[in-house]
Design brief:
This protein has 184 residues and is α+β, with helices and mostly antiparallel strands. 28% of the residues lie in helices and 31% in strands. The longest helix has 16 residues. The structure holds coenzyme A. Coenzyme A (COA) binds next to β5, α4 and α5.
Length: 184
């Protein structure tokens, strides 16, 4: 299926646009925002390449990476990004990141629910997974609130920046099957 834009109660999920650069740069260059990622904070050049890659994701047909800029309906501000990505070989996987000024307002949970709806209802997927650092309570908090099950705890699985000591990090993996998905 081709890329589609979607929406939820408070959020619009649209294609990346060049005007998203300032907020994406603010997110991806910031240590607090990037603490639990395997990659380092990004420089301007990295973010420009990432933005162009995101724009291209929406042009592929069939689409294998539903990558969205997340926009607040009531102000029009871009507050983060998310994706539902899969290939013939890899399971469908969710990811999300919000600008730190917008954490703890339930937007992450709203994103997760919307991506599950896209995956199960629109794309007819069978199983969807997500993973995160075991210290990333916000990320696995979303997974639990949207009904995903913890399936694995990988010990010292990847080198994370954990705000730059590059420690070996544990990772949780969560999953949900279509028959477990509860629309509400
Ligand atoms: C992960 C992230 C998207 C969470 O977004 P959010 O909008 O704050 O999430 P929600 O407000 O929907 O919170 C969901 C649940 O997670 C838990 N949670 C969220 N932030 C938490 C925190 N700082 N400490 C403890 N629990 C937290 C809570 O259980 C919360 O539910 P509650 O508010 O009803 O108690 C956000 O923290 C973020 O962008 N982090 C940086 C990028 C990142 O780490 N992305 C994930 C990579 S795997």
């Amino acid at each position: 299926m081709h890329y589609i834009e979607i929406e939820s109660e408070r959020l619009l999920f649209r294609k990346y646009e060049n005007r998203d650069f300032p907020v994406f740069y603010d997110i991806l260059s910031n240590l607090e925002n990037m603490k639990y990622r395997s990659s380092e904070p990004k420089n301007e050049d990295d973010v420009r390449k990432y933005l162009q890659w995101g724009i291209q994701c929406a042009e592929q047909n069939p689409c294998i990476n539903y990558r969205y800029a997340v926009v607040l309906k009531h102000t029009g501000e871009t507050i983060g990004s998310c994706e539902l990505a899969f290939t013939n070989k890899d399971p469908a996987e969710l990811a999300w990141e919000l600008h730190r000024n917008y954490w703890r307002k339930g937007y992450g949970t709203e994103i997760g629910k919307t991506l599950l709806k896209l995956g199960f209802e629109t794309l007819g997927l069978r199983r969807i997974i997500a993973d995160c650092n075991t210290l990333n309570m916000g990320s696995y908090g979303i997974m639990e609130k949207i009904g995903m099950r913890r399936e694995a705890h990988y010990v010292k699985n990847y080198r994370g920046n954990s705000a730059l000591n590059y420690e070996w990090c544990d990772k949780y993996q969560y999953a949900i099957l279509r028959e477990e998905w509860n629309v509400n």
